[in-house]
Amino acid sequence: MSNKKILMITGDFTEDYETMVPFQALMSVGHTVHAVCPDKKSGDTVATAIHDFEGDQTYTEKPGHRFALNATFADIKVEDYDALVIPGGRAPEYLRLNKAVVAMVKHFFDSNKPVAAVCHGAQLLAAAGVLEGRKCSAYPACQPEVELAKGEFMDIPVDQAVTDGNLVTAPAWPAHPAWLAQFYVLLDK
Fold first, then answer.
1. Is-catalytic flag, 34?
2. N or C: the chain end with fewer CB closer than 10 Å?
3. Catalytic entry in 31, 37, 51, 119
4. How many CB atoms lie within 10 A of CB 132?
5. How many CB atoms lie within 10 A of CB 78?
6. pLDDT tens-digit readout, 174-186
């Protein structure tokens, strides 16, 4: 596998596992990962939340770790990156309102570069208008947004992932082995 330069766009109350696990897993196989958040710089942190599935009608939420960003959002040039990762949690809900973030997401699709999104990351994909005609999995509560964006919502088990062209998506953090494996394949092309 050739080493790639990967951008991770995240924010406050990103899902803890959906941020830290891919960040560390991608670096552990030799990729460079730059984690950024609008209006924050390298060394700043974002709050994370731990979402769990405990038998309720939706996930529960608990305080997570502080996640340290290792790059400055304002300095990012998306053309310097080979791929994009969008973690879930509550961050995509407000990140999709940031025009610079939406433009960054669009760049990766316009350039046909690999993109991995998990859980509520689909909210950012929908806002960027990149889901039309694409298969996309996400947390089930995001199904209406995927479909309103003219994507095909894939109702798959929580530990599975789906690849459609340059896009890998999954419902939630239990799918890390599946979506990381599929993302590695895209990164190696």
1. no
2. C
3. 119
4. 10
5. 18
6. 999 999 999 999 9
Q: CA 51, 87, 102: angle at the middle one, nearest 5?
A: 135
pTM of the model: 0.97
Q: Are 124 and 95 in contact (CB under 8 A)?
A: yes
Inter-helix orientation angle 16-28/176-187, to 10°: 40
- Cα angle for residues 51, 106, 151 (degrees, 5° grid): 65
Q: What are the pLDDT digits (tens) for 21-38?
A: 999 999 999 999 999 999
The token pair that represents 184 in the structure block: 């590695």
Rg (CA), the chain: 15
Please report the beta strands in 13-71, taking only residues with DSSP state E, as ranges in sequence order.
Answer: 14-15, 32-36, 45-52, 60-68
Decide if 37 is catalytic: no
